[in-house]
Amino acid sequence: MVQNEPSIYITELRGKEIRKLQSKKQFAKTSLYKYLRRYWQGGKTINTLVPMYNKSGARGKQRGTSEKKRGRPRLGDTIGINITEDIKEIFRKGIRKYYLSDKKNTLVFAYKMTIRDFFASGIRYEDGVKYITILDKNSIPTFDQFRYWYKQEFSIEHVKKEREGIKSFERNNRAILGSSTYETLGPGSRYQIDATIADVYLVSNYNSDWIVGRPIVYYVVDVYSRMITGIYIGFEGPSWAGMMMAIANAASNKKEFCSKYGINILEDWWPSAHLPEIILGDRGELEGHNVNNLIEGLNISIENTPSYRPDWKGIVEKLFDTTQSKIKPFLPGFIQKDFGERGATDYRLEAKLTLEQYTKLIINFVLYYNKNFYAKGYTRDTGMIEENIKPTPLELWKWGIKNRAGKLRVVDNNIIKFYLMPKDKATVTPKGIKFKGMLYSCETALKESWFVKSRVNKSWKVDISYDPRSVNNIYMHTNDKRIFESCALLKHQERYIDRAIEEVEDLRKRENKDFKDNEQVTLQEEINFYSRIESIIEEAVKDANKTQTSNLSKAQKTKSIRVNRHIEKSIQRDKEAFDLTINSEDRSAEVIEIKEIKENSTEAKVPSIKDLFNQRRKKNNK
After folding, report:
1. Predicted pLDDT at 470
2. What per-residue confidence (pLDDT) applies to 296?
3. Which residues of the chain, if any, have pLDDT below 50?
4. Strand 211-213 to strand 423-429: parallel, antiparallel, or no bridges (unpaired)?
5. In degrees to the nearest 10, what's the CA dihedral of 509, 513, 516, 518?
6. Beta strands 432-435 and 438-441: pairing type?
7. Could you give phi then psi for residue 138, rounded to 5 degrees?
8. pLDDT number for residue 462
9. Whole-number pLDDT of residue 604
10. d(CA 385, CA 405)
11. Rounded CA gap, 619 and 605, in Å?
């Protein structure tokens, strides 16, 4: 019938042929149309009429609901039970409670605890202990059934997230479908920065007997080329101070940097001396108000990885392992895996290298890495393949500068350092520019009489930046081309010279603590002082009340104040004079005589000092 083309495609003619075949072979009309449709949809091949066994059965679906036991018969004399919706819900509860938890129990344990909780026939107590009796083996599901429905209903991704945590899953088990290089257009598009504590102990540069601990190593890496563009090795950090040193190094001339350590190179050997477009780092160092200076002043975008996600900056993270593997065999004082275990060597005692010597090692590693590290997994684009560019950092950097340049920027080193420093506010006061209790001055403040103005009017705030490692200077923000102006400590603030900001803050805390500790004692002494004052005054009032005349008028009491003052002054002078010829008895007689003069005086005339001294001479002549 299907060979009759094109009549088979005409509805009326096809209908006649179907009716003939239906009456001749006794086929159902619907079956004929079904086979005809399958033949045409399958490309007019006869194999399309083979029975579709792939659609038979009920894969992934529960079988019939009859009471007859489903599945393979058991070998023993037990029958078992079918898994109903109620039992599946019990399985879900048991798996969530005992398996999908951070305790990481086994699936067998989860099965046993599920049986204990939901398939118990009774409870008994013996000696205060609770014992649970489970149902017979024909009334409980098997572990195979439990495991089967666990696999049916819980995906691997869901199980991993619940047992390991989402962050751990994203770090260790997620699908790896992206690439760090994909979003970079060329050198300087994105830098990754990270720090680690080196696995080696160092000694002091001043005394080799002093073990100074393990240094902090910072790497700054260009994502596009894999080149190490900056480093910092020291004892700052991981912190903002260490971070800013690493970024400053990334933007500095490497030939000059290496020469400080006695390593002579050509600029082509380590050509990175630029600022990038984006810096990707950790939340710790690149969060907070300090980073705003970097964003606003140097026009750099900052990206932070989520917590516990070092895989987001895997390029720089891998560098630390590479560094250790290359230099580990040669390092005295390197920490092995057995460090701290009983009987293990104390690697601290083997320390020999100083910080400067260890820095030389890292510089040499960087020079080797940038030139020779072959990035096997690097995806070269068409242009690189055509020019046969090897995927080494130096080759990729040079090719990118030539063909993909545009993101790198060269900025004055002092400007970079200024915007890397933490920002704060200082107060202009009559005593100086005050910052954290320290006083500074600058040329502008003296020229424009800031300190006089602050005394006449009132104080005001200014924006400053500072290096937390040395408080000798702060850097005041200006609105002109200079961008900043240096302010120096005043001379009488010498106790802060060459101090770190932490030392200054610690000193102030100690002084405040000393004041607080002494506050109670001071308060007690002050109260005692008030008590003594009150006692003296009470005694004085009591004595005055006894000797003072009570019926004198106000005018009588106040009219002779000047006379009284001169006489009292003369007596006081006589008492205080350095006169070694007058004994105490004669002086007492003189005081009595002066009192008599005052009492016998009928006029309010004030005797002159000359008269008083004449009277004293007459007495001495006698």
Report:
1. 84
2. 72
3. 64-65, 175-179, 308, 311-312, 602-604, 620
4. unpaired
5. -130
6. antiparallel
7. -85, -5
8. 94
9. 45
10. 18
11. 22
At CA 278, angle to CA 484 and CA 314, rounded to 5? 130
Q: In this structure, what token pair is assigned to residue 140? A: 């409980």
pLDDT at position 179 is: 46
Give pLDDT, residue 315. 75
* Helix intervals (H) in 154-231: 156-164, 166-172
Tell which phi-psi region holds residue 262, choosing left (phi > 0), alpha (psi between -120 and 50) or beta.
left
Query: Where are any strands of DSSP class E within 137-273?
Result: 191-197, 202-203, 211-213, 216-222, 228-234
Cis peptide, bond prior to residue 332, ω within 30 of zero: no
Q: Please enumerate in sequence order all residues whose Cβ is within 8 A of that of 295, keeping only pairs 6 or more positions apart, or say none.
A: 301, 302
Q: Strands 301-304 and 278-281: what pairing?
A: parallel
What span, in angstroms and rounded, lies between the C-alpha atoms of 609 and 190? 94
For the stretch 260-287, what's the b/e string if a residue is b when 16 or more beta carbons lie within 10 angstroms of its beta carbon? eeebeeeeebbbbbbbbbbbbbbeebbe
Residue by residue, what is the 3-state secondary structure of 464-477? EEEECCEEEEEEEE
Angle made by CA atoms 114, 116, 119, in degrees to the nearest 5 = 85
Count the Cβ atoms, other than its own, within 10 Å of residue 206: 9
Inter-residue contact 393 to 419 (CB < 8 Å) = no
Which residue's structure tokens are 């260890």?
A: 358
Q: Is the dihedral of CA 265, 267, 271, 273 positive or negative?
A: positive
